[in-house]
């Protein structure tokens, strides 16, 4: 069984997210570590974090995903922007390291005209500085749609970052179904082929989480616009196949679809029915 959940607001804290997840039938969730458009993080509340740590430890929840803000860019041309990304990520990790079982997902960044190779080198350098020995949180690179100068729009680019960063114990990949579709991979019709390619290039053992989204755009559009499950160009059938896939079982799958909580609850229910009807 896959763990299914959705993106939740973190404004009420960890305990509140655990209660919300339970109320919508979710056994995982995702949250932003701070305002996605930047800004200061809340102080760490050990008592509140203990609620989440307890649910992770007793198996009530599968792995949960903390998402870095969108505004950081670890491969900016501007060294101050890179420094800010490193500081933000290090601060996030210092807190997440206190809650075993939480992944830290981030967008690799935009190279801003320097070229993918330079971007890959800068991202890897940021990760090497971010992950000194001693921490434990596994950091996930998200597969991107390849919009503009985004790095991570192909499996090869993610592989190159992983190789250059050289911290296999601390790094993994989160596959976003909307992004890979928009990036040109045919998960709508050939999930097995895409997973084989992922395995060949990156290695399925490095796949730690899924963002489960439909896409408003045609395959290869490089746009990144999420649609509700079954309301886009990927379609319910293909997304149900992701949930059911034997190689993806045990992974947390998080919806980032345009929904409020009742919509998320309905999508989780729908996908669990599809999973049972294998
Ligand atoms: Fe993301
Ligand atoms: Fe995503
Ligand atoms: Zn997206």
Please, could you describe this protein's structure?
Helices cover 39% and strands 15% of the residues. It has 278 residues and is of the alpha/beta class. Helix 3 crosses helix 4, helix 4 packs across helix 5 and helix 8 packs across helix 9. The longest helix is centred in the N-terminal third of the chain and has 18 residues. 47% of the residues are buried. The model has no long low-confidence stretch (mean pLDDT 96). It catalyses: Endonucleolytic cleavage to 5'-phosphooligonucleotide end-products. InterPro entries: AP_endonuc_2 (IPR001719), AP_endonuc_F2_Zn_BS (IPR018246), Xyl_isomerase-like_sf (IPR036237), Xyl_isomerase-like_TIM-brl (IPR013022). Its EC number is 3.1.21.2.
What keywords describe this structure?
39% helix; single chain; 278 residues; binds zinc ion; 8-stranded parallel β-barrel; globular; alpha/beta; binds fe (iii) ion; two-stranded antiparallel ribbon; 10 strands
Average per-residue pLDDT, rounded, comes to: 96
What is the number of helices?
A: 9
CA radius of gyration is 18 Å
Describe the sheet with the most strands.
8 strands, parallel, barrel
H-E string:
EHEHEHEHEHEHHEEEHEH
Helix coverage percent: 25-40%
Lay out the secondary structure.
Blueprint: E1 3-7, H1 14-23, E2 28-32, H2 46-57, E3 64-67, H3 79-96, E4 102-106, H4 116-130, E5 139-142, H5 155-165, E6 171-176, H6 177-182, H7 191-201, E7 207-212, E8 214-215, E9 226-227, H8 236-244, E10 252-255, H9 261-276
Parallel strand pairs: 1-2, 1-10, 2-3, 3-4, 4-5, 5-6, 6-7, 7-10
Antiparallel strand pairs: 8-9
The chain binds fe (iii) ion (2 copies) and zinc ion.
Binding site for Zn(2+) 3: 179, 224, 226
Catalytic activity: Endonucleolytic cleavage to 5'-phosphooligonucleotide end-products
Protein name: Probable endonuclease 4
